[in-house]
Amino acid sequence: MNIFEAIILGVVQGATEFLPISSSGHLVLIPYLLRMAEPGLSMIAIVHEGTLLAVLVYFRRDIWAIVRGVLAGLWQRRPLATPEARLGWYIAVGTIPAGVAGLLLEDFFAEMFSAPMIAAGMLLVTAVLLIVGERLLSGQKPLEKMSWLDAIMIGVFQMFALFPGISRSGSTIVAGLIRGLNRETAARFSFLLGIPAILGAGLLSLVDIVQAGSLASEWPGMLAGFMAAAVSGYACIHFLLTWLKRRNLYIFVVYVVLMSLFSFIVIAFR
Known about the structure:
The chain is mainly α. Helix content is 80%, strand content 0%.
């Protein structure tokens, strides 16, 4: 994969990780549709870490408050005393379903990433999820009022995003709406919940990269992809949070349906 292709992959990952249109589906479909070199494990890992940097920088104050709250709660033997501490534990609990499913069914989900037809079909599932979320009346519950059941349900919906084509941010935002969160709060928790998932997937892949010894020969493209993912990811976090304050999810429904249909046509005639 050359530097230009790496930048395209980074931009795609950065944008689609946070917009509710499925990064995994686009990482399968875009290289296929553009006849790009299939991204290797190392490149996928690096662009994921770029999006991790984006969310860490954007939510740096929130993350610092959560870390301080959790540590202070443990030190004082009152782990759930503050909203920040509770939010930290909710993120931990919400991470469990996808983490367990990913570890137990790693080979099963890995095979799907070589099937553009499956990714295109799952984009339609994302469209249905977004329509369901939009039809629900979002509540007024802020992050401080979340419960354990909210975190578990949103975590279960995040597990569905292990299928390429099902949006992680889209499914978790919809779960938040179902539980009565307002749009912006559902999106904010979705992004914070994604930190452990992105970090875990990236670290596992980086271990494989180091063991394979491919880092030295591919670093220019990796650096370009990493920076592209970080910049586009940061911009799209800000865009989505701003968008959801006043607008609905239907624009993303239209996009994923068109992307799915276009992919089916290309696959059928290629």
